[in-house]
Amino acid sequence: MWSFKSCGGNKGKGFLQCALPPTGTDEKNPLRKIGNVCFWVIFLLRLAIKTRLAGRIHCRLRPRAVPPLVLENVEEMIAAEDLHAEFQFPQEADSQFSSDADFEDFDGRNAKTGKGMQTSRRGKKMGGDKSKGGGAGRAPGVGWVNGHHKENGTEMMTLFEMVKMGKSATQAVVDDWIEAYKQDKDSALLDLINFFIQCSGCKGAVSREMFRHMQNSEIIRKMTEEFDEDSGDYPLTLSGPQWKKFRINFCDFIAVLVRQCQYSIIYDEYMMDTVISLLTGLSDSQVRAFRHTSTLAAMKLMTALVNVALNLSINMDNTQRQYEAERNKVIANRANDRLELLLQKRKELQENQDEIENMMNAIFKAVFVHRYRDAIAEIRAICIEEIGVWMKLYSDAFLNDSYLKYVGWTMHDKQGEVRLKCLTALQGLFYSRELGSRLELFTSRFKDRIVSMTLDKEYDVAVQAIKLLTLVLQSSDEILTAEDCESVYHLVYSAHRPIAVSAGDFLFKKLFSHRGPGEEGLPRRGRQSLNGSLIKTTIFFFLESELHEHGAYLVDSLWDCASELLKDWETMISLLLDEPMPGEEALNDRQETALVEIMLCAIRQACECHPPVGRGTGKRVLSAKEKKMQLDDRTRITEMFAVALPLLLAKYCVDIDKVTNLLQIPKYFDLDIYTTGRLEKHLDALLRQICEVLDKHTDSDVLEACSTTYHYLCNEEFTIFNRVDIARSQLLDELLDKFNRLLEDFLQEGEEPDEDDAYQVLSTLKKISAFHNAHDLSKWDLFTSNYRLLNTGLQNGDMPEQIVIHAMQCTHYIILWHLAKVSDGSSVKGDTMTLRKQMRAFCLMCQRYISSINTAVKEQAFTILCDLLLIFSHQIISSGREHLESLIYTPDSSLQAELLNFILDHVFIDQEDDNNSTDGQQDDEASKIEALHKRRNLLAAYCKLIIYNVVEINTGADIFKQYTKYYNDYGDIIKETMSKTRQIDKFQYAKTLILSLQKLFNDMSSEFGFTFDRSSSAFCGIKELARRFSLTFGLDQLKTREAIAMLHKDGIEFAFKVPSPQGEGGTPLNLPFLDILCEFSSKLIRQDKRTVHTYLERFMTFQMALQREDCWLPLISYRNSLQAGGDDDTMSVISGISSRGSTVRSKKSKPAAASKRKLPEEVSLPAEENSCNSSDAVWMNREQDISTPMMMHSPHLTSTVLRDPKRMRQEESCTAAFFMPTEQHHQQPATPQQQPLHQHQATIDYNTQVTWMLAQRQQAEARQHQERVNMHYAKMRNHMQQAIRRGPGLMEEDEEPIVEDVMMSSEDINEGIDFDTMDIDLPASKNRRERTELKPDYFDPSSIMDDSVLNVLM
Description:
The chain is an all-alpha fold. The chain is built from 56 helices and six strands. It is found in: Nucleus; Chromosome; Chromosome, Centromere.
């Protein structure tokens, strides 16, 4: 029944081969059959342990006796991991087991590998194919052919396809390749080589003959010839999730391959030598795809070898420790055989480590040293990223100055991606204090560069530089100087939030993380707590930074790392209210103001949970945890400040800055807590303090804060509304009664108001105006009293300006609240007519105040009038509000002119001339900025009227003409106005632009006369403005076709509008305007250029066409700009005559279809000559008549950069733009309308010939110039090819643009750094074996790179 056979082979290891007896064919009891099989399997495994056979049991089940189900169950039981864990085979001293090893499977599969390959093996049955390759002991029908796995005639996927698909585990793919390598090394290595070739995007494949008989350089050259040149993309650069996953799988494959082969295969002096040689050759290729892919593979291979070397180092240390322990025993207890085994093991480990070091040395010197300064930033980034990994993994071998210098040098790289990799690599080293202490020399050498990178133009680089400095700070406090830290401190105010947060973390660790010996026992909260001293430190830093208006930015920067400190409002309140302890230094007034501001900013940050304005893209969606924290913080704030806020207001009642900030805290309260927490008495105390603040202050900011606080507290949704509403009504009644009483005394006839009365009226009016901004005071009828006050001031002229300003502001609020009631439909009958009368009366009042003497009053009246004109424009009836049509108010021409004159007189002025608005403080920079801000607001108010079509668009001509002169002050406003106007009406926009240029031209002519120099700054400024105007039309010429044509029409008419005083032969006075008009010629399409040229000919005489003096240059240049790019290069300059019939072209320069379209154009031009009407309608009709019936197809642009000059035909290079007259075109028979023209042409035939001769002379000069250009191009092309090709190496005969310069000079990558490249010396090999099978070019870079590159890099 049983037969046992010991199978030899596999280096003397025995295998037990058994045949199980038949289990019968009884299908009624399958469980019994399975049980029998399991019993015998376990029995055989135990028998193998007893016989100590160093091999694996191979069970060959008889298929005819055992059902398939039982076979699968048995194989799964044999392959189960728990059985492996239970039955451990003993290992000999000289045997090493791993996945690559030494466990042979006679069927060519094991459970793990076979299972993993089930999902990855796909293919179609290859009919007639036989098994190729393979080796001794390999199962029939299994093989690897040209990178494709074949089994039983079925072609499977390649390594590249399996890694690309990612369906199979990398471990299973590597295990299959190892099995194939053990049976046929050459075939498996050929598969691996093709894997790297295919990963580079190459379509070719290395054959078995090429692998055996060709050197690496020859193979690479052959693959380069087969590379796909149609596209520059390859797998590592392709986008999409599949290719991103491929990159990950590619790196994992290399790492797993080395890990699985680390015990035997990598030391066979064949596989690793071949792979390293191939990658070295590919990494020096001028094909980017080869260079990029091979560099990534080589660097990942190096990283895997570093892991192997690290494991070997650990094993050597353990072996040495065991050897020392055994040797130190007494002689009686010492085991000499164990000492010998340990010595032998240490020797083997040392030899392996030498092998690994030699491999790493070869990769580093042949790949890294050259590629870390490659021309491609991605390749440089790969090198720097991996060297950081090496230094972190195996610091004993790599963390020294010989390797760190490459990271330091590359920090000067021009690409932010590479600089970023340098910083992240250094961060991985500084995270460990042990490694950071070994970087002192490097830090001292490159510290200044790291500090300067905090201001890098790439935000990501700057963030990582700050984080690196934070790690340096944690490793040692003595490395960074005070100046270095200060350069990071100010970044907490950066508008870029990641930079600010990183700087805040640096600031927190520098100033707040160090605790003195006396601070350990301090309480957690309160004035004497640790947070109290830290809050004081924050205040000191805030004041010393001298950026007091940016407290919100400082709080936001510190929020992520110091939120617990900034939320300690209890300590802040204690610092403000409690008396200092004996010996404690109290806060001064300036420090208390800063603390109140920081406290308010912290409250806002906690309740709003988003960065301040200008930092961040907007509000983000909060998570559930963040929402809960927000509610908890808001509850704490309400409970704490509901009690403390009245006390704080009482203490700082007279301080404007503190009170303004404190009054903003209630808007972050949860008002329900006043009721649920029974805090109504504290609410009453708060309302009393607000009333007291109103009595003591007249500052606008304080009054606005009080009004806003009342508006928030008077919310009908909360139960405290009635209590607050009663207090507000009492306050307003007192204010209004006081105002009416003071107004009567102030406006009494025959008495001059004294200053005290005026101050009382002004203070009361300020408070009413501030409250009217947020509260509806319509029931008190304030319009009559305010209008009376304004009318009296206008009649007498002695009203104080502040009273007039606030009266106009209050009246403005009255009209807006009245409009809100009318719009909502809550008003009674007759309110609309009342509002219309009040609005028109107030607009007239503001118009009269615009001509006032006082500048502040005029500015206020202008701003309010512009707002009212915009609100009550025709757009008021939109969105279903037709019942408000009676309220529309359109300004008449006199009002529009008055508004425009105000802008020209008060906005477009020099800074030094603005004496009134700065109150004699021109030297004060803040005053100048404030004055500029006011003027910008005035201009924006008027531009809104243009944008919303309240005033005529052409009134913007006086605004647009100031674009270049006042670009720094108002350029953004004017540009946005032009953009919106163009969107509204392109036609009117073009007329407005040409009108603005005409006004500038007239102003210049009035100042300098008509004989001005066209090279003067004034004329050049107008041309520059025209150039900028032309850019506003964009690139789509069809959308702006009519507008551009009308612009040229108006410009031509203006140029010939004023005739010459000298008579018909003189130059028109406005003719230089055509030079300005040339800036818009490029915006004309081809057909419209002919139309505009024909329209220009209507204004020209025959004598004008022949003039060549300087005064006629604008006409000549304008005509040339219209002819450039058109179908006809020799158009007649005579009015009404077309020379198309006599124009001769090269036969190959124009298709015949183009000449067929000339007949309608020739017929329409004479008909147009009879028309004298210059109106817009006639112009557009004429344009449609003259233009071609259908749009001409634009020719395909063909680049000649890559074309060899010797291959260019002479007619292509010389006559592409200039056409020689070789023959006369037959003219069409003249129509009756054309006969007078032919008669006129006969009289001027001589002049026409002269014109033709001049044109031919110009064409001859142009041909000579073109020939010189071609010669220069040929020389430049040859030099470029010589610079790209690097001697007789790779890519010698390739002329396609897939080659590129692969090296960067030291000056390019390290600007301003003077250093010498150090030699890299890894530990030398002690027991280096002779590599008899090694090909001569495996580790010799000189066989692949020429001497010039080696001299630069080595």
